Amino acid sequence: MPHVLAAGDLFVTPSLFIDAIKARTGPEAEVSFSELTLPWPIEPFGPVGSVNEASGDPTALIGALAGAEVAVTQMAPFTAEVFESSPDLRLISVCRGGPVNVDLDAATRAGVIVSFAPGRNAVAAAEFAVGLMLTAMRRVVIADADLKKGTWRGDYYTYDNAGSELDGATVGLIGYGAIGRIVARILRAFGSTVVTFDPYASAEAIAADGVELVELEDLLRRSSVVSLHARLTAETHHLLNAENLSLLPVGAVLVNSARGDLLDYAPLPELLSSGRLGALALDVYDVEPPSADWPLFAAPNVVLSPHLAGATKQTAERAANIVADDIAAYLRGDRPRYVANPDVWNVLSERFGS
Fold first, then answer.
1. Is 288 assigned a catalytic role?
2. The pTM is what?
3. pLDDT digits (tens, 9 = 90+) for 190-216
4. Which domains does the chain have, with CATH numbers?
5. pLDDT one-digit tens code per residue, 53-64
6. Is 337 marked active-site?
7. What is the DSSP letter of 161?
8. 252 - beta bridge partners?
9. For the D-isomer specific 2-hydroxyacid dehydrogenase catalytic domain, which residue ranges apply (predicted)?
């Protein structure tokens, strides 16, 4: 009887995983389950051993994995130590756009398939990014805080201080994956001209969406609003920095709801005080949470949220459903749809004649 560990958290709970898997395997399936609940998001994720953006203790995870052939999680820290101590494990399904909390090399050495869930939060993150744009461009957060303190900001209706519209604006999207593409669709409905920088995207496919593919410098020069939607890699670390941010038109709005280290945060206070940046909206940070003396807390025209872009009930349900499909496929002897280390699947399928 296959045993599945549902290592959930307070967002994608163990019960969401288990119910989704049972719905796909049916009541007659001989599958047993155990649960582990991790402290995220009440406690922030972070590096754990050899992995990033993880939550929980590897020792506790090792104990929970005893006898498990399959594990499903969002945040559990699957380090090299975990693989060395879990000989029965054959599949990990991670309900995220990439399995950053899994030591993929160690998984491959151990013969463990790793699957993941691209696009699970694309709609939520895209809607949130557009919401940040509007909030920053129209000073919603600042006006709300002032009004609650008894200050009526009539000066925001003066010409010099009035906000701007998305209709007719050129918006630059850095990254044109699942999230960027939805953002582009929403913006075009607003009447925006959308340009994007993505070295891995197809110019023909982007053109079919009514979006123009451009170089990064061109995007920064042309865009009154810039929004980040790229994956964080060694190549994209500090993709936006003091040098290229100086190319922005005066008063531009910058939004980052992707990953903190895509953006060099050090030059942002000066860019805001000089007016090069008219407003800044952030959902992610180079250190999460930021320290109490973080300079941007005191900077003008800044909108901040605590890494909430993907936080919808639909995201949690969608994430559980995507990985449940892959687990059900594996239990039938079929290849999971989204596999990060396909060589392991090839070896196992040959061994078992799948």
1. yes
2. 0.89
3. 999 999 999 998 889 899 999 999 999
4. 3-120+312-352 (3.40.50.720), 122-304 (3.40.50.720)
5. 999 999 999 999
6. no
7. G
8. 277
9. 59-341
